[in-house]
Amino acid sequence: MRSEERLRMLGILKNGFANGGPIHGDGVVRSPLADFTCRRLAADEKRVFFRETPLLMGLSSDLPAPGTYWADSETGLPILMTRDGDGEFHAFANTCRHRGAQVVPDGRGVGERFACPFHAWTYNGRGNLVAVYRESRFGAVDKNALGLIELPAAERHGMLWVRPTPGAAIDVDAALGGLSDDMRHWKLPQHSYAASQVLRANVNWKLAIDTFGENYHFDVLHRESLAQEIRGNLQTHDVFGLNYRMVFAQARRFEEFDKAFTELREWPFRLATLSVYFIFPNTIFLVDPYAVDVLRMFPDGDDPSRSRTAHSFYAPPEVKAFYEESEHEYAERFVGFNHVILNEDYAIAESTQRSANAGIQSHVLFGRNEPALLHYHNAHRRGLGRPLLAPEEA
Ligand code: FES
Ligand SMILES: [Fe+2]
Q: Do 3-51+176-384 and 55-169 show the same overall fold?
């Protein structure tokens, strides 16, 4: 993110404190609630978005050193990610070539040899089958042809990307659609993995993403929580291909910096803002002064009204030092985070899902001040070749 770009956004937000901020959308949009309940749509989404599309999995520090691994089954396909002895990132289908069992249990750790729990066939961090238990009794097999099935994987700008179907390599810069500058700016390789959690909710996975789609609700739903820090009804709006960025203002910092600096270009951008990115198809990526949060939303089984949010956060160096020098545990941060996300956002979203399930109203409305919602829904529609939503004629 170039400095002129940061300056432009700070200018929009600062003026917005005085005049209420810009309105970005062209009109009110009707969006069908069936998008949260349709089983046929859910099946198409699973195939296209969670198997065929490159997915952001996490940051480089999920695999902090050569010889580390991370097994994750959230996409529906068990995936084993490794960093080999040379530091290179790989991804494999985490399924044994003998009888298909999951080789490495979900989780993360250190290890370069992975023995399947069923009959102990053993693979290394490059996916090679290195040992067949009691091979002489089993019968002859070509071990060279029976490595773990490799998946396209790419590491760039400190991000880990995987496509859960074998095939063509991933072009991360193309997938970022112009956000590469931003990602470089955040110095993601300097962020260390802190902690992760999985949140289950009775909401469609797209509705979980929608909870991060506007700050019109901050002064109402988050009156006592987030609105104490973030200015409601004020955001920037920028589209990057299928991805999206909106930046919010940290209210107290704006007041403080307004007094402390004569020039806007002197303001420390990260301290003054919360940047909310949507990274197609299923990730909300947050950057605030204390962390980078990666929230990956997934369908939970075949029921369109259930989802899982796989949430990891990563600490910049100065915050890591704070945690290491104090008695604090990284996981303590989830208490405040979940108070907002689970008790407020997802609780309200569950009520929307219930009305969608009940079929009492066919559509909901996205306002001109909720442009990210229109973007998210149309990005998913584009991904499936569905007709796009557009503002109503006034
Ligand atoms: S299924 Fe893995 S060793 Fe048999
Ligand atoms: Fe919210």
A: no
Query: For a pLDDT cut of 70, what percent of the chain falls above it?
Result: 100
Task: State the Cα–Cα distance between residues 97 and 153, nearest whole angstrom.
Answer: 20
Q: Nearest to residue 153, comparing CAs of 140, 162, 164?
A: 162
Domain chopping of the chain, boundaries? 3-51+176-384, 55-169
Cα of 226 from ligand 2 centre, angstroms: 8
Q: What is the CATH number of domain 55-169?
A: 2.102.10.10
Residue 118 to residue 8: CA distance in whole angstroms: 58
Q: Minimum-distance ligand to the CA of 115?
A: 1
Give the model confidence (pLDDT) of 3-50 as tens digits: 999 999 999 999 998 888 888 888 999 999 999 999 999 999 999 999
Residue 97 Cβ < 6 Å to ligand 1: no
Which fold, 3-51+176-384? Answer: Naphthalene 1,2-dioxygenase Alpha Subunit; Chain A, domain 1 (3.90.380)
Nearest one of 139, 100, 92 to 117, comparing CA atoms? 100
Ligand that comes closest to the CA of residue 223: 2
Give yes or no for a contact between 345 and 221, defined as CB atoms under 8 angstroms apart. yes
98 pocket-lining for ligand 1 (C-beta < 6 Å): yes
Among 309, 177, 313, residue whose Cα is nearest residue 244: 177
Ligand 2 centroid distance, CA of 186 (Å): 23
State phi, psi for 166 to the nearest 5 degrees.
Answer: -60, 150
What pLDDT is recorded for position 19? Answer: 85
**Nearest ligand 1 atom to alpha carbon 99:** 1
Q: Is the beta carbon of 119 within 6 A of some atom in ligand 1?
A: yes
DSSP character string of 156-202: ETTEEEE-SSSSSPP-HHHHHTT-HHHHHHTTGGGPEEEEEEEEEES
Instruction: Give per-residue pLDDT as tens, 299-315.
Output: 999 999 999 999 999 99
Residue 144, pLDDT score: 98
Extract the tokens encoding 201.
């909710």
- Cβ–ligand 1 distance for 313 under 6 Å, the answer no
Burial class (CB in 10 A: 0-12, 13-18, 19+), 260: exposed
CA of 374 to the centre of ligand 2 (A): 17
Q: Which ligand is nearest the CA of 208, by number? A: 2
